[in-house]
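Quick one:
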Amino acid sequence: MLAERLKLFATLTYRRALLGVRRSLRQRLGAAASAAVLGLCVLGAANLVAPAPAMAAGLQCGDPRDMAQKGVTAFAEGRYELAMPTLDCVVRSNDALSKLHAEYYLARIFSDDAGGYVDHAKAYTLYFGIAEAADTVDPEDPRRAVFVAKSVTAIAGYVRHGLPEIGLKADLPRAVELYRNAATFFNEPDAQFELAKFHLTGTGVPVDVGVGMHYIQKLVQDGHAGAQAYLAEQHWRGTFAPQVAKDHARALAMIKIALENAGASDRLWIEDSYHNIYCGTSPQERSRAVEILAALRRSVPAQSQPGAQPPPMALGRRQPSPSRTCSNGEPIVMELRTEVATPPLASSLTQASPRKTTPAGMQQSTR
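Output:
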């Protein structure tokens, strides 16, 4: 009897916690919507995508699932001019799941400052429409949860910095809560990464190096390129010693792992970090880094290896930048492992949601 009562208590507690998280998400998103309502009113859902050449040429909209996959393929290859009209076909369809995927990738296109079609107001509108489902989607649903989680995280970024085009003012406390909701409810890695940096720097939350580095270490082990690059920089600077020892050889090994895992959205800043670290290391440190790198490759998974769960953000990897040199003219050696390949395009539409494990020390005010 006692075991049954404890089981019932645990079930009821979990359900109450789930309702609490969903209520918090509704409140945070509702507040963000109220702040930007005037700007959003000028964006009609039927006019999210401007007519593209392919659409004007008479693109035939076929099966929404096939069109969604074609659109994602074009997106991953960086051919936004083909992806946009194809995804627009899906947005105008009645296939709810394919429509969600298409809206997400259109938001990615509109939020890409280097893509040539940047329109953050439209991106916010699309992300917000997806994020509104956060209070109803099952966090274990592999077809929806990851897209909703990424959209909540994207909304948190806009709330953090503000979006003048739609009258959205920066609101760090609200952004922190949105990140926390995405991190705890969906176990969303990019939201966890932002929370980790907040704890390490005291941005919006009290400084807690232990909690921040726990986040970072977990994400590093999960193959998160941003966290790997961040940890490399801390080994380089020694900012958080003694928790993270200053070690230039380890910094070089870790930043190379990060560069091998980097997706298109992170590639540029991680390459810059790699170049700075490489040029600042001695021949002896580089030699020791080779040994450390071999060990890291055995313990830290590449994002595309079996068992890893590359998020949609990782699609569309860019090729390494042209050869560069250090300030003394020495060429920068890349030598990235070749087995790290672009994740299958279909993975973003069929992958399993991340396991629901909360890092120890995470604040769980909503659970």
